[in-house]
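This protein record is not my work; I was only asked to verify it. Would you go through it and say whether the fold makes sense for this chain? Here is the record exactly as it was handed to me.
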Amino acid sequence: MRYRHQLLGVKRNLSTVICGGTLGLVIAMTLNVADHGHWESPTYPSAGIYMTVTLVGFFLGSMIAILLMPGLSESQYWPRGKFSWALRGILFGLGFPFIYGGILPLISWVTAVRVSVFSTQEIINIGFNSLFQIPGSMIVNLFLGVPTALMSTPVFASLGWVVDRVNQSTNMRIVWTFNAAVVTLLALAIIIVLTVVEAEKLATFGWR
């Protein structure tokens, strides 16, 4: 029954899940450019890495948003109302760069496997090294993600709260129109950020 309520919460707040995905996409790209800029001149990744980073960011952001849907609010340990969404925003903002940093070494290992230029022993060694790199990668990306966390926390919290209230309306025209507008605006924001903002500015976002 608990999982059924969770699924109903996701269905009712699908635009919030998409919001989490799009925020995750931008944060992942920002972290990628910022991490690269620590060693060389900041630059956007190649097309293949670009697609991987954006897809992973969207998927991970969506998954975190799903876990934070109002289905959890039925628990006696979970607060309700505006404070509930504020807490969800903080968990999303800090949780995304932390978890994203943890999967980066695994993505590197999968990429090495796909390249197919390594021997079986080398692939195994790379896999073990990736596991040891996970804690450090999580801490580094959490630090680099502080500015994006400060940005995404109020966005996710306020938008999620508004969407949740609007979706409780019995007027389905208002519900669908509002959700479509939210998704459209988020898509436009993504396009603007990733096509207009220079890599140098993205790499130093929030730190200068």
